[in-house]
Amino acid sequence: MKKLKKSLMFGISVVAMLSMASCGITAKDDLIISYDYTNSNGTTETKQINAQSYYERYLEKNKKDHAKAYYDTINEIAVRVSFQKGVGSNGEDGVLSSYLGTVNSEADKAIVVLKNKADEEGKSWHDYLYTLGYDNDSLTDEQNEKLLWNDKQLESMKEKVKNEFQDRYQTWNTSTDATQQKYNTVWGDDGYITQNLPFAIRHILVKCGDSTDNFTSSSITSDQAKKLSRVINKLTNTDNVNSTFGSIAHDETDDTGSAGQNGLYAMGSSLSFVNEFKLGIYAYEAIFNKNLSNSYNEFMTSMQTKYGTYVGFGLPENDKNVIENLGIGYVPFEAVDLLDTYSDLEKKDSKEVNDGKTSYFPRNIIFNKYFNQHNLCFITNQSISKADPTNTNFVNSDTGVGIYSDLDSKGDYKNGGTYSKVSANNHFRKVPGITNDADDVKILCDQNNNPILMSLNATSSGGIHLMSIDRGFFDGYVKDKAPSEFEVSTTDANGNTYTVNQREYYSPVLPISSDGYHTVNNVSVPYYNVGTTAGETDSTLAPSYLDAKTNVVTPKRTFVNNDVKMNVAGYETYKSSTIKTELETNSYASKLTDINTYDWLKTNVNLSIYNKDGKDSVAATAQNLVNMYEVNLRNTLNQTNNKTLSDAWDAYSTTLQKQNLAREYGLIPETCALNFGDTVTKGPNGIGLYAKGGICYYSSSIDQ
Questions:
Q1: Which of 184, 282, 361, 694 could bond 687 through an S-S bridge, CB–CB 3.0 to 4.6 Å?
Q2: How many CB atoms within 10 Å of residue 44?
Q3: Which residue has the higher pLDDT, 658 or 636?
Q4: For residue 656, what is the enclosing H or E element?
Q5: Reduced 3-state DSSP string for 265-316
Q6: Of 265, 277, 262, whose CA–CA distance to 581 is shortest?
Q7: What band does 541 get if pLDDT is binned at 50, 70 and 90?
Q8: Which pLDDT value is given to residue 177?
Q9: Number of other CB atoms surrounding residue 679 within 10 Å
Q10: pLDDT at 200
């Protein structure tokens, strides 16, 4: 049987009944916690609680972790005190005092439920308490039941604390709460926006290629080649009315997780995505797009100044240098068409070529050279280079035959000129910060002129990722402004431009509509960004709110859902990817919220460890341990998040380095695809391309 101190039972009971003992503490080693209390005559005094029993109970769970025991003790008392009257720093009632009757009632009901279970199982209440762990043989059944009741009450209290904090700090309202910048779970200093730098990403996955990193001889099926070509061709003809990136994602993507929301994902630094997807996007924002990378660097500098350390994209300098030096891949659109053209070509005049080795199928040669790339790529309006490959002076050790590749003198794979089959008005654009104005190279963009990013990852569910950044964190960046004050401008299909701040842009509320638009003053306006008048009350409209700073009614803003036609079922599915759910389910976000929740409670009741005349060594030690523990909780969260990101960057850059080493000599020249099975046309070595000794003749022992 347990030998639990009676003081624990009575201590908890006293706190639970909200009649805390005040003075008269004499035990030298007792842990004393104080808080302000305003009595019925309006006099404010400091009350003191003997919390030693609390501390001993928590320490029993882990005898080596004194800091956590002190921390848990203070948090429990903070919870209980917050349900009292007159305990605020200025005599206010505890923030949850109105719920006292509710939590007591819920504890009563919990006991009734357990007693009914005891009856159902044919056990006495005494025996059932024993099975629940309330088996102190020095206490009566009533006293053990009281301990159980107190625990059930605490469970209910903690749930109310969680809900209250969420209600107060998931929306932004500085007019009623001046602590929003400190505690707001979305836009505060520790909030989801600042800590995770969220993006709204459109994504299409086309499953193809091997499930492992085969950098030079991966194989795709005929159907995969046709689908990849079909999807990219569709993307060149979106009109934002009948066809959009989102509608193509809905119809074509192999990613079941985003198909129902038209390819839309909320992505942040603490969320799990494959490296080529997530880090490819981060590389675009932080390295390759100079317009945005400047904003990123400015923001990171300001955050490091403010917080000392900051995770951001977690991009280590050495990995940044590797990725920057390797650069971006450019995929000529002609290669997209050739995938379809060559999709079924596996024999020459009904005869196998090179013993039917699949790596020599034209579709695989084209795929490996242009699409089998883990680094960030763009699709360009170019043709492929049809020049004969040059001898790289790499010789097969078995045959003595020189190996040829499509490398140019700089070690790059040269693309050809402008591809005439793709018209200039089909979403090929020069992208500021990426393309060189002196070049004629244009990049495939979506219907909103966002560049379409492409990369491949090799897993059992991997393939080609086609990505469009619907909204990036730094699109609205303004130097020296808080994230909640960033301004984001967007233009709808009718050319109407709206400006909203980050708070509204990342609102965890999504409107449901039949067609995505409604009319305001004879202008078609997206439901997700309604007009700025206060009189719009249609239930399908996104709700508005009054900005306390500007006194202007501003519309709610969601993750750019401008081409999704939502029904209720679709809305419920979509919500799983919004910030609202991430705040509830993401481990990093929820732990950070827990830390801030108890900091808020303790501040609200002015709770502290009592240090009599500054000489009480026990209290001083406890306070120091608690302070250290709180700092360590935050640091550990950041370090864990940073290490996860850092490890991912290391793995990503290592993959890219291996890829480039393998591709340097391992790729079959594309002239072998263009002249499949041709033994007559002579290569640069004077031998027929597919004749024995020719540069396309199969050899199984190429040393690297």
A1: 694
A2: 13
A3: 658
A4: helix 617-666
A5: EEECCCCCCCHHHHHHHHHHHHHHCHHHHHHHHHHHHHHHHHHCCCCCCCCC
A6: 265
A7: very low
A8: 80
A9: 17
A10: 79
Helix (H, G, I), strand (E, B) or coil at 546: strand
Mean pLDDT score of the chain, rounded to an integer? 79
Strand order in the sheet with 44-50: 44-50, 32-38, 608-609
DSSP string for residues in 195-258: HH--EEEEEEEEE-S-SS--SS-----HHHHHHHHHHHHHHTT--SSS--HHHHHHHH-S-HHH
Match 């022992």 to its residue by tokens.
701
* Helix/strand/coil (H/E/C) assignment for every residue in 42-67: CCEEEEEEECHHHHHHHHHHCCCCHH
| Tokens coding 324 | 């920057």
Residue spans of the domains in the chain: they are 6-169, 199-471+657-674, 481-575
Contact status, residue 690 vs residue 679, Cβ threshold 8 Å: yes
Distance CA 220, CA 134 (A): 63
The neighbouring-strand residues paired with 405 are: 390
Q: How far from chain centre, in Å, is Cα 156?
A: 31
Element of type H or E holding 471:
strand 463-471
Predicted pLDDT of residue 357: 93
Cα-to-chain-centroid distance, residue 649: 15
Q: Which pLDDT belongs to residue 563? A: 41
Question: Residue 579 to residues 127, 242, 246, 345, 503: CA-CA distances in angstroms?
Answer: 46, 29, 20, 47, 12
Query: What is the reported pLDDT for 573?
Result: 54
Rounded distance, CA 415 to CA 382, Å? 7
3-state percent helix, strand, coil for the chain, nearest multiple of 5: 45, 15, 40
Q: What are 259's two structure tokens?
A: 């198909």
Tell me the average pLDDT across 135-156.
92
469, 472, 475, 478: CA torsion to nearest 10: -170
Prediction pTM value: 0.79
Instruction: Write out pLDDT tens, residues 347-390.
Output: 999 999 999 999 999 999 999 999 999 999 999 998 988 777 77
Tally the C-alpha atoms within 13 A of residue 385's C-alpha that lie toward its C-beta. Answer: 17
